[in-house]
Amino acid sequence: MKLATSKLPSAGPIGELVTEMISAPPADTLSAEPAEEAARLVALVEDPLADDDLQLALYLCFELHYRSFPEVDPAWEWDPSLLAARAVLERAFFDALEAAVGPGEPVAPAEVGDLLFRLESEAEGVSLSRHLEVNADIEEFREFVAHRSLYQLKESDPHSWAIPRLDGAAKTALLEVQADEYGGGRVERMHQELFKQTMRWFGLDLTYGGYVGVAPAATLAVNNLMSLFGLHRANRGAILGHLAAYEMTSSLPNRAYANGLRRLGGDPAATAFYDEHVEADAVHEQIAANDLCGTFARDEPELAGQVLWGARCALAVDNAWATTVLDAWAAGRSSLRN
Q: Does pTM surpass 0.90?
């Protein structure tokens, strides 16, 4: 399996525009040229959700707000020229989401919890978890873990952007979920750390972001969606809906992942991450749907529809990713980019 190198990765001219910028010292003056060039290049993109170049470039921009890259000057995080170029990529991504999922629609705040559970029960899509439980060989499972490492090594971080944007009971509910995700104060119980045990069993590179350079657009879009929602206060309803969708659709798939890994000989350390989520997410789904999203919708009724839209986007983008992976395996090729 090909690993990402220390060099900033790109997958085309949009990525090269971003990497060339952040590989150099930030300029002292604002320039409109990067945004104009980004707009020209984005206009040539047929499908922003499936475009490796656009999604990787956007991922690189977003990553500056997380742990960034050793070779990048921290000042790039808030550089206005880069932010202007990023805004062009974000708009293309957002418009493509609306085209794929449809726009958000107003809903009654009191119905948000029930509607989230209905959305979860009616969700249809390919069953990647079933394939991994029953049919996947060890190389396919290893690839699956490499894909997921982009998120799992910073699990919950995108959703934590919502904490300072909430108040009262909704904030308390989010903190209850996040406290579990971060191990309840114990480093070794952090879900990010438990996932490293799974990666270690497969002999994968434990470096944070080590597989960004080989991740296809579908994988990057899963991660970019969280950042798009989490980094913008205007999308605070959407990031909560996204979290609810994740918690409500996680328990059964994680049981399947654990079973599949045990079938392949995985030891308790390797399966601990998935076993933990079977129990934790069964509890979190109630908190996320009712205590978090339901309370938030009552507090900010004008954003109740955005909560449902965020959940729909999460399910749609994740299903597109699962389809991409399974289609690659069915064709006898790697699901990672070469």
A: yes
